[in-house]
């Protein structure tokens, strides 16, 4: 793979990897017209990144506009490979990687934690008021961006497992999320009692938010799966 590829709206620098997951890689890119920094999320393989999830993420983000929700600028196709590429707002790191830095190994400092809490709570309030639940909130899906005044802002990303609810009381039954951050009812159905018929609601997001805050302030997860931690990997 070449180190520099030009798409329709951005130039992607493939040797500047800023994120790498099971189904996608994120590279630094630049808007060809304005020169502004962007993030290019390259989908590795459609067989791994379900096409439904990709379309759900694009459809959801196209209708959202909030400072604490990652911005989608467009969707393109990589020349030669045909891989899908999402052009997103550029953020310097994820909360997950930020927590790995030496100064944060015992948790975020008070002011940083307060910023995280306010920003993600604001993002969630906006999502839920628009009938959207995320269903996979965790440090790896929260991005940290440095503003022009050098202060941080946190944004929610990765909407492939999100779902639109017709009303705040609507319930659902599908199993999605990451094991360490699952609501107890979801965890029980996923790993203990598959016959369980208890429905879930938007409260699953709040539970994941609480687990994320616990990890951010203490550098430890509040709950460890029976077979050990999975290093923030999505398992459903």
From TrEMBL:
GO terms for molecular function: ATP binding; protein serine/threonine kinase activity. This is Protein kinase domain-containing protein. The lineage of its organism: Eukaryota, Metazoa, Spiralia, Lophotrochozoa, Mollusca. SUPFAM superfamilies: Protein kinase-like (PK-like). ATP binds at residue 41. GO terms for cellular component: cytoplasm. Keywords: ATP-binding, Cytoplasm, Kinase, Membrane, Nucleotide-binding, Serine/threonine-protein kinase, Transferase, Transmembrane, Transmembrane helix. The chain crosses the membrane at residues 12-30. Its main location: cytoplasm. Signal peptide: none annotated. It comes from the Eukaryota. It is found in: Cytoplasm. InterPro entries: IKK, Kinase-like_dom_sf, Prot_kinase_dom, Protein_kinase_ATP_BS. Residues 12-236 form the Protein kinase domain.
């Amino acid at each position: 793979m070449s180190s520099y590829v030009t798409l329709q709206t951005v130039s992607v620098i493939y040797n500047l990897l800023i994120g790498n997951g099971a189904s996608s890689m994120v590279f630094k890119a630049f808007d060809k017209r304005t020169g502004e920094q962007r993030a290019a999320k390259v989908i590795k393989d459609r067989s791994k990144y379900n096409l439904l999830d990709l379309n759900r993420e694009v459809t959801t983000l196209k209708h959202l506009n909030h400072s604490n929700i990652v911005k989608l600028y467009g969707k393109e196709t990589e020349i030669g490979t045909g891989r899908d590429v999402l052009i997103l707002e550029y953020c310097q790191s994820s909360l997950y990687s930020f927590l790995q830095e030496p100064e944060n190994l015992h948790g975020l400092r008070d002011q940083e934690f307060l910023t995280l809490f306010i920003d993600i709570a604001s993002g969630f309030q906006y999502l839920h008021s628009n009938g959207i639940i995320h269903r996979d909130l965790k440090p790896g899906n929260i991005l940290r961006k440095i503003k022009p005044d050098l202060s941080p802002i946190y944004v929610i990303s990765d909407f492939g497992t999100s779902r639109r609810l017709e009303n705040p009381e609507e319930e659902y039954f599908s199993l999605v999320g990451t094991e360490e951050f699952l609501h107890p009812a979801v965890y029980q159905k996923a790993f203990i009692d598959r016959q369980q018929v208890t429905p879930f609601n938007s409260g699953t997001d709040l539970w994941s938010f609480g687990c994320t805050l616990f990890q951010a302030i203490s550098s430890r997860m509040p709950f460890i799966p029976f077979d050990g931690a999975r290093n923030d990997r999505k398992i459903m």
